[in-house]
Amino acid sequence: MASDTDYDSDGMRDNGNGGSSEGNGRRRRHPMMTWRNNLRALVVDNGRICRIMESGLLDAYGVEVEAVGTGEAAVELIASGETFDLIVIEMFLPFMSGPETARTIREMGITSKILGIAPMYWEKDAQEFLAAGIDEFLEKPFTPELFVPFLREIDNQK
Amino acid sequence: MDVMIQLQRQLREHSAFLRKEGYLDDQFEQLQKLQDESSPDFVVEVVSIFFDDSEKLLNNLAKALEQKAVDFKQVDAHVHQFKGSSASIGAMRVKNVCIEFRNYCEAQNIEECLTCMQKLQFEYSVLKNQLEYLFRLEQQIRAAGV
């Protein structure tokens, strides 16, 4: 569902490769949880506020986060060699949709946990996203109650 | 000292009021927990961005609904964005209007969409006033504590 209104252009640094990412930069001194392993997450959400909250919460729970606003930027980042334990993808991204992004990432051989998220959805949306290769589909807001069990699972399996 | 106590009481009461009346839900507390010594103004900063984005969204929604041939997919896209951002910061009433709005977009019911548009403008405007008051109280407390 492409929108010609760009709500997320502010704060996006162009890395010169056509994609842009916001490295979290600020690592919390006292995270709310600690893990046995270093956990990295990629947040893919075109909504500015959503992206800030999703990365902020993951950071607060001890995860190193990168955040991008498009599926294209996510694919570029992964293609450049960056690895992530967890990838969180908004369903309704402009241009390359959430399902297209998930499908492309899986076709690249990435086996990381992928969570699909959406503000609202019909059942067919969830089915489409799951068929594209995500592991779980969640409704926003992205809360610790929702994501901590996945972090625990990832940490235990590493 | 009395001024400080009074301000703190006003802050507590106003916060409780916002929760009780459903303006804010648990997600606002998640936002507040993200504020720490390295980001002491995090809540105000994020809410300011929310206000910016919301005003753009409301403008775009109004323009989309004014068209002779309304593009309901476009309206739906804006409502989605608004639901996402409002849910992310705990703006419960705004979020709930978006949910209702979405159903009318799906049904392509222009009259109800226009009604939802008005409700959204109203709820957003009230929320903005309430949050600005909350932040003013917090600022007064900080100033009184110096």
TrEMBL record, chain A:
Identify the stretch(es) annotated as Disordered. 1-30
**Which one GO biological process term can you cite for this protein?**
phosphorelay signal transduction system
Instruction: Tell me the domain of life.
Output: Eukaryota
Q: Where is the Response regulatory domain?
A: 40-155
CDD domains attached to this UniProt entry: REC_hyHK_CKI1_RcsC-like
Listed InterPro entries: CheY-like_superfamily, Sig_transdc_resp-reg_receiver, ST_Response_Regulator
Signal sequence interval, chain numbering: none
Protein name as catalogued? Response regulatory domain-containing protein
Q: Which organism is it from?
A: Juglans regia
UniProtKB/TrEMBL annotation, chain B:
Any single Pfam family the record assigns to this protein: Hpt
Instruction: Report the record's Gene Ontology biological process terms.
Output: cytokinin-activated signaling pathway; phosphorelay signal transduction system
KW Nucleus (keyword) present: yes
The UniProt entry's GO CC annotations, sorted and at most eight, read: cytoplasm; cytosol; nucleus
Q: Which CDD domains match?
A: HPT (cd00088)
UniProt protein name:
Histidine-containing phosphotransfer protein
Q: What the record says about its domains?
A: Histidine-containing phosphotransfer domain (HPt) contains an active histidine that mediates the phosphotransfer.
InterPro entries for this protein: AHP1-5/YPD1, HPT_dom_sf, Sig_transdc_His_kin_Hpt_dom
So what does this one do? Functions as a two-component phosphorelay mediators between cytokinin sensor histidine kinases and response regulators (B-type ARRs). Plays an important role in propagating cytokinin signal transduction.
Q: Where in the cell is it found?
A: Cytoplasm, Cytosol; Nucleus
* GO molecular function annotations of the record: histidine phosphotransfer kinase activity; protein histidine kinase binding
Alphabetical list of PROSITE patterns matching this protein: HPT (PS50894)
Q: Which UniProt keywords apply?
A: Acetylation, Cytokinin signaling pathway, Cytoplasm, Nucleus, Phosphoprotein, Two-component regulatory system
Q: Ranges for the HPt domain?
A: 39-144
Q: What is the lineage of its organism?
A: Eukaryota, Viridiplantae, Streptophyta, Embryophyta, Tracheophyta
User: Phosphohistidine: which positions carry it?
Assistant: 80
Supply the PANTHER family for this chain: HISTIDINE-CONTAINING PHOSPHOTRANSFER PROTEIN 5 (PTHR28242:SF13), PHOSPHORELAY INTERMEDIATE PROTEIN YPD1 (PTHR28242)
